[in-house]
Every structure is written in structure tokens, then in C-alpha cells.
Amino acid sequence: MSPFSRVLSTFFALIIVLFFLINTTTISSSLFTKINAFSHFLATFHGKNNHHYSSNDQTDQPNLSLRRSTWRNPFIAFKGINDISPSSVFTKKNISRAISPDIAKCGPVELPPNAITLPYCCPILPSPLKIIDFKEFAKPNAPLRVRKPIHLLDDEYMAKLEKGIAIMKSLPENDPRNYIQQAKVHCVYCNGGYPQKPPFQNLKIDIHRSWLFYPFHRWYIYFFERILGNLIGDPNFAVPYWSWDSIEGMQMPKYFANPNSSLYHHLRDPRHLPPYIVDLNYHVNAESTTQDQQVKYNLAFMYKQMVLADTKEVFMGGVYRHGDQAQPAIGSVELAPHNTVHKWVGRADLPSQEDMGTFYTAARDPIFYPHHSNLDRLWGIWTSLDGGRKDYRDDQDWLDSEFFFYDENLNLVRVNIRDSLDTKKLGYVYEEVELPWLNASPKPSRSKLQRQEKKASLLASSQDPMTTTITKFPLVLDSKVSVVVNRPKKLRSKLEKEREEEVLVMEIVDLHSDKDVKFDVHVDDDEEMLSGPDKAEFVGTFTSVPHGSHKSKTKYLVAISKVLEILEAEEDENIVVTLAPIVGKGLVSIGSIMVEYIPK
Fold this sequence. Notes:
Cu cation B binds at residues 338, 342, 372. The chain is α+β, with helices and mostly antiparallel strands. Helix content is 30%, strand content 14%. The chain has three domains: 3-84, no CATH class; 103-439, di-copper center containing domain from catechol oxidase, CATH 1.10.1280; 448-599, Jelly Rolls, CATH 2.60.120. The strands form four sheets. A five-stranded mixed sheet has the order 6-8-13-10-11. The chain has a four-stranded antiparallel sheet with strand order 7-14-9-12. The chain has a three-stranded mixed sheet with strand order 1-4-3, covered by helices on one side. A hairpin with a 5-residue loop joins β3 (402-406) and β4. α1 (3-24) packs antiparallel against α2, α7 crosses α11 (368-384) and α10 runs antiparallel to α11 (368-384).
């Protein structure tokens, strides 16, 4: 080999090393600039000796292969590193795209611009970094912890919860089991503290509005429960649940309203102390109603969010893989009652309804944990409906998605979703209560003839530019508006409806993440006199919890097969969808509305 060939070989070897580093490490912009300049030098050198290099050969399209064309400028693929797409990286179907946070690269979280506190939410990491994989499954014959509804518990049991919270609050601030440190776990996962792993380190992880919502919170409550039980010397202690979906549990538990208790929190809405009935469709401008009427509203609302939401996409949220943008689609119960109860508890007179009303501080309120214990219970109930509903357990990326938590022995533990699917293997079950919402199917507010006449009138006037019926998008939702949406299929057979759910899909764009936003969705309703939550025409609500300072986008899915049956509208070629902004008018836009058919 000639000396010149050896020089070229050395240069090419160096190129390969640098190419590998770029794909496996996070590179600052300044370093990237230097590498890019160096690559141009190499390319020029190579071009002078091969007489075919030209700057016109460059391309801005991401290219992660080492084809001959890229040797002319081996780092050209990274000119737009923020624009790398999953399809250009994951070229083989068997490559895992499971989400896993890069915990060593944790950084400041995104807060609302008017945040009342500025927490640093990253966890305290051991040095050197040591992580163990979760293997603490319950032994086959070991007694199971039983999570019970708070309204059925006695003072003695609740005293244990009070004691555990008090001990956690007294621990040193640098102890991962400290109460505020535990609260920061929620903050860092929900407000973009963790980046995805390379080459998508520019994308922040958010466990909300996606298929990560339920399993993340299941693990979160699990480790919180283990820590608390260890601190009080009772490994069988279980975090109780706040059963706001049952009639007896539809008020803030009295134990959390005692100012002398560790369960008390000063940043709560003082109007909502017991015996005030919780509003599962709450918003800050909500008008008061009678207790009996509120219970009726709540039960019908739960029926819609649980029973009608019969596909995994509608109930659990959208698919979220490595390389994807966060918040692909939000699930029904995550929207409400999850979001609404958060805001019902938080202070309405604070900028972001702290503490429960915004994600960066929500877990500072002790009622957060019984609230999410109930949501975990509802996930289990949903999977048991209709003889067993399908979740995402046939998707390897969902099963392999990872989170990190500290256990009661100060070990940093890596967990995945696959190990969370059976609560008995995690050592706990739920004591059930009656589910009155299972039989709370809503009724129409008007007769079929009245609806048809109103709909015909609206369709006839839809060509008039002065009416509120529109067909153009994007739509800034600053006032009540109706949209005519075509149905690709009508008069579906029973078998077709058993196989596929008819779903109203709304693309949410330009959502102001730092603001409280809520709008209700109605189908074939009277725009001038919209129905309440207990009526069939009211099909859902979109409500956001402030947790950032940017504009975001997501999707909102509403199952309407059963609704169309109730409204006797299955033979109609279209439906009229009315969007009614309740809070935050003009702070969200709708990119599109369409009907899709999703397999069950």
C-alpha cells in the first residue's frame, strides 16, 4: 500500500469513528459546527484526489447510511439534526422504538410563565450511576395488599397514611424518599425534564396525552406505596383510593380537610371542601347545581368516558414511540375526570390553579395519590368490560417502554410497562364498590323528529356566510360553532359495529399549554340550547391542565357508535358537530374533524 493510500485509509477510519460518535452521543452545536467544517475539509481533500466532489451533491435530507454519495460529505446527514425523522433512522421493522428517558441528561422542566414556584425537578442520581432492573414480583402465596375506598376506611387505617406522609415530609431534602422529592418525579416526567435518547435528544418526554399515561402512574403509585409502607413498618399497607366515581365517594375525603393533618394542603379551592359534591366535568366558570343533579351528571359522564370509550385509542391515548413528538392523542378518562378533578381541587384564584391544577406541582398535594389510585383502578375495570377489552399489550414498543423510580431501599430501579400489567404480580388488588355509572346510559334531549328538523335547517343554512356552520380549517375556537362532518359508512351491521368503533377524530392545534382551556363537543344538538352532560347529544369535553409555556398539538377521539344508535342517526350521511368553548376562548384551534373507524 502506498503512503498516499495509507493516509486516505486513516482519514476514512477517522470519519467512521466520528460518524459513530454522532449517533451515540449528544453533541453541542459548537462541536457539531467544528465537525461539519472538518468534514468539508475531508470531502474537499477526497474530491481533489477523485475529481468528482461538488457542493451541488449536498442535500439537507437526513441520511444515516454510508453510501458512496455521503462519503463526499460524511456529516451532511446532520446539517438539520433537529429534523431527523423516525423513518430515516428505524429502517428495520424489528428495531425497538420503545420510549426510555435519558435520565443522565435531565434538565430544567418547562413551566407556565406565571408559575408560583420554580422547582428543579431532576432526581438526585447516585455517583457512580447504578441502576437495577425491577424483579420484586410478589411471591405466589404471599398476601396481597388491598387498596380500599377511603370512604369505607376507619380512623386507624387513615392514621397510618397520615404517619407515612408526615415521615416522608421530615426526611432530608436530598433523600429520594423525601415527600417533595417524590412529588418532583411527577414534575420531571410530565413537564419535559427528560429528553429522549439519541438521535432524538431534542425531543422531550411527556407521559400525558399518550399510551404512557396509565402505566407510568401505576408504577409511580406502586413505588410511593412501597416507600410509605416501609417508613411506617407495614409492608402490607396499601394506598387507598378516592372513589369519586361512586355516589358515596363524590366529595373530598374528610381526612384531607383537617388542617392539623399531614394530609391537609393549603393550596386547595376552599369552596370544594366536604360535603360539596365533586363535578367530574368541572371548569372554573361552572354554575352551581343541586347535589342530586350533580350526581346524575357525574354518573352519565362516567358512562360516556368509560363504557362508550371501547377502543384502546379512545380510552388510553395515542401511540407514542421513540422519535415521535409528545402528546399524540389523549384518552377519555385522562381528559376527564382526571384533568377535571385535578382542577376542581386546585386553587381557582391562582395562575395555574396550583397545586393540583397544574402538573409541575400536582403531586405536592397528598390527595394526588388517592386520586391516581382510583384512576389505576379504573384502568383495570375498563379492561374487564365487554368480556375483556384490548389494550396495547400486543405492541412490543409499548411493553418495552421504560421508567425509573427509587424504591424504599434507595435503589434506582428501571421498570417497563410489560411488568405492570398484572397488579397481583405487583402485590396488590382493589376492593371494589358498586359501579352505578354502568347503568347510566344517557337519553336524547329531543325527539328524532325535532333533531331532524333542526339538522335540516342547519344544513340548509350552511351555505350562508353569516351562519356559524363552517367547513374550513384551521378553526380558531373563539365562539360556539357547528361543523358538518361526513360519515363514510352508514347503516353498519351489528357485526361491523362489534368489530369497529365509529370515532370522531379532532385534530387539536395551537393549544396554549400555559392556559386553562376547555370546550364541549355535541352531536346533532340544538346549538341555541345545548344539552347537558346527562344527555346523549353531549358526547365529550376537551380540557387541558396548564403545564408548559408553548403551543402544543394533539388529537381528541370520541366514540360515537352507541351515541348514533341512541339518537337514531345511523342512516344519516353526516352529523353536525357543535364545539362550545367554555374556558380559554381563542386559545385553541381545530385543524380538522373527521369520522374514522377503529378496530376494537
